[in-house]
Amino acid sequence: MSDKADFTEKQYLGREWIPITIRLILAMFCFAAYFFTDERERNGDLLAVVGFSIITISIILGFVLHFKTIVANKSVTLDGLWTTRRVKIDLNSIVKAEKGTYSRYLFNNPVYNLHTKGTIRFYTAGNDAIHLTDRDGLLYIIGSQHANEFLRAIKEEMKTKG
């Protein structure tokens, strides 16, 4: 078994365009309200502080790692944010691997190890996902921004004997 990973992907919380747009619109609203408040209003300065805080938080979130996906040694390892447990999916128990969409909705919240109705979801950003079905019928849906490369790496690992 080699220590080199066939596929590695890091997904960050603050790099999805829809939440960034929402935060920037809120910041612009705060700056516009600050601009149009009278100078005698004491709480007008609070709007500027909130606007700058929103922009600062957006910048910080761009560097916060949500989870890292690694395909190596006949397994998919998902390592999450700080206190989350590492999830290791053995590819020997996977019967079907395919590319699909993560969700039919436009807005999706980032999730890590969310168990609902026989599926386990991992998602940060993007539209594509890899659907892995194990022998017990459990479906893993792993969102990826590089789904084609991720699927290729999974299929190669499933082919190799070891």
What are the defining features of this structure?
membrane; four-stranded antiparallel β-sheet; PH-domain like; five-stranded mixed β-sheet; alpha+beta; transmembrane helix
User: How much beta, percentage-wise?
Assistant: 25-35%
Please summarize the sheet with the most strands.
Answer: 5 strands, mixed
Mean residue pLDDT? 88
Poorly predicted regions are none
Keywords: Membrane, Transmembrane, Transmembrane helix
A few lines on this structure:
It is built from three helices and nine strands. It has 162 residues and is of the alpha+beta class. The chain folds into two domains: 13-63; 65-159, Roll (PH-domain like).
Description:
This protein has 162 residues and is α+β, with helices and mostly antiparallel strands. The protein folds into two domains: 13-63; 65-159, Roll (PH-domain like). It contains three helices and nine strands, in the order βααββββββββα. It has helices at 17-36, 44-61, 147-159; strands at 7-12, 65-72, 75-80, 87-90, 94-101, 111-116, 119-123, 128-134, 139-143. The strands form two sheets. The chain has a five-stranded mixed sheet with strand order 5-8-9-7-6, covered by helices on one side. Strand 3 and strand 4 (87-90) form a beta hairpin. The radius of gyration is 21 Å and the shape is elongated. It starts with 6 loop residues before the first strand and ends with a helix. The mean pLDDT is 88.
